[in-house]
Design a protein that fits this description.
This protein is α/β, with parallel strands linked by helices. The chain has two domains: about 110 residues, Rossmann fold (3-Layer(aba) Sandwich); about 150 residues, Rossmann fold, CATH 3.40.50. About 45% of the residues lie in helices and about 15% in strands. Helix 2 packs parallel to helix 3 and helix 5 runs antiparallel to helix 6.
């Protein structure tokens, strides 16, 4: 029995215990999370339960008084234990010359960054795939490109960096919304891709959907036509263009973030 104990929600202690357990081929470890440890009575019950069986107590208790009481009870009952957090905090105090606040749950405090992130994610969902043209003017950045140039995953990745993103697909048969042409050019980023690479991506997409890859969606001539059309629209928009042919989402996102920061585009 391994008790993952905390004076907060106990998530950190439990995760670290699970990481340690994964290093063993045995399946006879049982993990019990004890959260919101606040009183000596709770400690007494925990130690009494632990003393009844083969057990270990792993704890992340930041309240100094509570931690001392827990350690005294553990020593009195000869229970195996590991203080997960204190050694790290103590060394950080030595390194920085600062004093720890010793308040549980601070990592879970809902600060302004959290709410900005949630707002940006909601904005990305609402303004995905050109479905809300009226939101274009409120975006920090607008992504444009043909289908399968990673507009949606890029929008969500950037949203988690607290950046509000709209994205608009460019399709030869459909004129982009007129609101797009009212967005300042420096707030628009065009995504282009090598026709051969896009052909591979779309063919694989059709395969996963159980469709034949000879559909026009994956036809190389059609793809070339779409890309040339998109380039024409991007020229009219006078926007920055990024080639995403051989780039991972993170790589393209970092390029965009650098551009946003350089041009001070966050609202």
């Amino acid at each position: 029995m391994i008790y993952a104990v905390s004076d907060s929600i106990g998530e950190t202690a439990e995760r670290l215990v699970k990481a340690a357990v994964s290093q063993f081929d045995a399946s006879n470890f049982q993990i019990v999370r004890i959260a919101h440890l606040e009183t000596e009575q709770q400690i007494d019950k925990l130690v009494a339960d632990a003393a009844k069986c083969q057990s270990m107590i792993c704890y992340t208790v930041v309240s100094e008084g509570l931690r001392r009481t827990l350690e005294e009870k553990i020593n009195e009952n000869n229970i195996l234990a590991a203080d997960i957090l204190s050694p790290v905090i103590n060394n950080m105090e030595k390194l920085s010359g600062l004093k720890s606040r010793n308040k549980p749950g601070l990592v879970h405090v809902l600060d302004s960054d959290y709410f900005k992130r949630v707002e940006a994610v909601e904005f990305a969902v609402k303004n995905d795939d050109g479905k809300n043209p009226w939101g274009l003017s409120k975006a920090d950045i607008v992504l444009v490109g043909v289908s399968r140039t990673s507009k949606t995953p890029l929008s969500m990745y950037l949203a988690h960096k607290r950046i509000k993103v709209s994205n608009v697909p460019l399709v030869p048969e459909l004129m982009p919304p007129e609101e797009l042409f009212k967005v300042p050019p420096n707030k628009i980023i065009g995504l282009i891709i090598n026709p051969g690479k896009l052909n591979e991506i779309r063919a694989e997409r059709l395969k996963t959907m159980g469709l034949s890859n000879d559909a026009s969606y994956a036809n190389i001539e059609r793809i070339s036509e779409e890309i040339e059309y998109a380039k024409g629209i991007m020229r009219k928009l006078h926007c920055v263009i990024i080639d995403v042919s051989n780039k991972a989402i993170e790589e393209t996102a970092n390029t965009i973030i650098e551009y946003i920061n350089k041009n001070n585009l966050r609202k």
